């Protein structure tokens, strides 16, 4: 039994073994791997893509799925705590996939659950299956993950996906370009993280100059609601839209375009039929990756425990007196043990991952 | 692989073979026919009956089902196009059943999907599984489809069901009575269609005179929202309500009453226990008919391609310059190739089927 | 085939055999018991816990599940009657589990359905699977059901769960304490029922004096919306909250605390890790109990018909002239036969169970 809460919980060796298992399941489907198991799919916040992908993955390894796709039809309306919902659902199933709007909800769930928890996204915090499928697609298409030049384009400030993927790629010595207007550029704490690991990166506000250099172009959606000034939104939106004309023939032959989807206008559909367009295949790769996650969560496949980052785990400690200040943190809502994670002398909330000042 | 978008795509021979396959599946259930397949059930518009019937059919041939039952919990809210939703879902499943409020949505889906599409109703346009189960029930109960006298009663103007079934029955040389008040009588384009095929029909505003003649009485619901004048609605509503007293002993012994359901007051429940009441059996027949559709869509059974109306298909062509004028057509929303279908010198939109003037 | 509508339909012997079957299914899972069957799960009113538990139970005996989790996405919006929804759904499945806000809806459904009905709660009336899992848990934990002292605490006036369980326990000669403020004390008709069976009971407004005596403490949630005066609610709420401090060491060693869940504040989470806290195990027991219900409903296991209370059944008769006065009764909504049940000279509505005066 193993939970999937954050990429931080996995070493480089473990990540590579997860991707290898996913590849094996993609090439040799195992329809009876989890034949007698039941998956709880708890979406406290709607997310069709993630939900259907996890369901498809469950079916493909022979599991059954129950749950809810939005909180409207749940006992939450009667005031039930996440604690009790998780305890109850654990009695009805063998593994829980959960999506929740509150940061740290998934980590908290592991403390009260009798069955493994797979985090399908907890607020602005973590979404490990997305990062794993991104890594999987890069490895499958580029033949490796190491030493690539990767541009992240669009909303880099709020994009949980970008934060998580860039941290994970830092294990593989990749070099980054962060392409965004100042307002939504990559946050300082990510840069600090990369600095600590001696990762090369460059911040730019246009992709044109760097386009010939990069191996992977990771596009993200710019959300109107992030902008106070709508004129600025309209200006920025256009700058970060790509199409056939702006890409084909101007980038490396083998450059791939990724996107966590859904896209709106940032990738023109005229790119869809080009060889660079990998975003739909990327979404499809979510299925074998999630099959692998189920297999590991339910103990059908064991990651080598030797490589676990035991030191980091040992540094976790409960400090009753330290309360995380993040208003969107589960510690503000549920009774937890206020655990703190220390790294390089800095304290982070064990649940939501935010620095505690 | 074969899509089910419109009855127009099937020849008479093909229709009969679909019904035969449905009969065979009803009599000899094949629980493992699609054992390793996944059905996407995408209801962009709620429809319990159609959805549950397609799900039951999938289960009965051994398939698994994922999807959504209303658009509330989907990425559509984030602005995702139908194009991308279909592409994504195709990666998670082997066949897509879709219900959509926009005319032509299903046809458009076939152009972007990697997996077969089954139309579970697209706006006011087509709902082929309903027509097939209507035909199935008529054949099973009357022993034939040819040369029957069929009365359509109620809302004939807006009833997609009536339009589609009357066109399909025209292949079988049936004779029609269209029983409705002027305001909601059968539209001119259906009559033109029947005229072109030399089909006999009569328009009446009361069923009493024709009741002794008919073999099938196809009832439909009169929807209040169609009427600007509620007094008129109340008057009309009562005229087109039938009950035991108005039917039994006044029609042929073997006459059957059909209804696409849900009914409200147009068929009194005192008729439910009479031998004429076939509407619940008709709904039940939706299950084997949809099993057959899955089997054909997924290539487990092949319709004889010789009989395909190849000529009609060849006449489809993309005219970039011709834009369909139907405000509810998918061509107004998604980027399509504006294809046009020509028949007897008239141009129809390939997607929504409306005449392009 | 056997319906599960009300505990009244089962003799003591039958109840014990249901619990025995549940125990057997818990100890020896039978994943293929209902392998080819389809369950309709119709939640006309949301209830996550009950729904997921019935779904989990179906999966564990090999059945498939279709249906809806709230009425929002159903044809009910088009005005479809419960009668027709049940008839339709029966055509798509082998057994129907239904939750409905109207009293008597489940009993009515048995009259129009071709497949067995399992009542997952009908308004304020009955919820037999809850009572069965309560009995199951008591038997499993205490080793017996007979001759126990049981305290019901909290909202005893509106709590369907309490009414049903106390009646069922009266077959086992248990003694009751009803612990509640006057405003929400146990209703007169329950006391009359117990009096008729010579059951000992005591009404108190605090649990402290009786705590050392009792074997089972059955807690319930006090709902704010029951109170006109919110000050009174706040006062009462606190009185009926228990925690580690108020319970541990002050009750019998083997006393168990039950709760139908969801709880809000009436049981402090500091009790969760004590041996008295049985409420999560109680919820988990819902799964094997519901497996047993499916097995019996679908004729895989037969309760001994000899023990059926045939006399009671014979006393049911249709009195067209007697209309139940309960505004929330299904007889006010659907066309029924207005059946009446007579017991000890008192007339009860056959559907909603209310006395007809």
Automatic annotation (TrEMBL), chains A, B, C:
L-aspartate binds at residues 78, 160, 221. GO terms for biological process: 'de novo' pyrimidine nucleobase biosynthetic process; 'de novo' UMP biosynthetic process; amino acid metabolic process. GO terms for molecular function: amino acid binding; aspartate carbamoyltransferase activity. It catalyses: carbamoyl phosphate + L-aspartate = N-carbamoyl-L-aspartate + phosphate + H(+). Residues 147-294 form the Aspartate/ornithine carbamoyltransferase Asp/Orn-binding domain. Pathway: Pyrimidine metabolism; UMP biosynthesis via de novo pathway; (S)-dihydroorotate from bicarbonate: step 2/3. Pfam families: OTCace, OTCace_N. It comes from the Bacteria. Carbamoyl phosphate binds at residues 49-50, 99, 127, 130, 261-262. Keywords: Pyrimidine biosynthesis, Transferase. Its EC number is 2.1.3.2. It is an enzyme of class 2 (transferase). InterPro entries: Asp/Orn_carbamoyltranf_P-bd (IPR006132), Asp/Orn_carbamoylTrfase (IPR006130), Asp/Orn_carbamoylTrfase_sf (IPR036901), Asp_carbamoyltransf (IPR002082), Asp_carbamoyltransf_Asp/Orn-bd (IPR006131), Asp_carbatrfase_reg_C_sf (IPR036792). Residues 2-140 form the Aspartate/ornithine carbamoyltransferase carbamoyl-P binding domain. The keyword Transferase applies. Catalyzes the condensation of carbamoyl phosphate and aspartate to form carbamoyl aspartate and inorganic phosphate, the committed step in the de novo pyrimidine nucleotide biosynthesis pathway. Belongs to the aspartate/ornithine carbamoyltransferase superfamily. ATCase family. Heterododecamer (2C3:3R2) of six catalytic PyrB chains organized as two trimers (C3), and six regulatory PyrI chains organized as three dimers (R2). This is Aspartate carbamoyltransferase. It comes from Cetobacterium ceti.
